[in-house]
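User: Teach me something about this protein's shape.
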Amino acid sequence: QVRLVESGGGLVQPGGSLRLSCEASGFIFRIYAMGWYRQAPEKQRELVARISRLGTTTYVDFVKGRFTISRDNAKGTVDLQMNSLKPEDTAVYYCNTDTPMNSWGQGTQVTVSS
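Assistant: First, the predicted structure itself:
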């Protein structure tokens, strides 16, 4: 049974920071590339950050230089450090494999507003 549990979201002002965490179980975590996805209202879900099974990272241009993805294979966790947040970052954030499995967690809401 695949389980993905996201946490760490909240309300922050523009320019602020948040650290999201994802706890994964029910699959062999260490052999999968992982990603953080987000979905804003009335927009499709998009992949914003990816980390390979060995730690190589990639980002979409809009978050590059502001977000950092990391993983701990021993714990089965993947984190997303978000700095210099912008209102455009407001979304529900999800973690999953890359490419994603059929099962998604509940996500964690990030709201960037003054």
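Now, about its shape. The chain has a mean pLDDT of 97. The two ends are 40 Å apart (CA to CA). If you'd like, I can walk through any region in more detail.
User: That's plenty for now, thanks!
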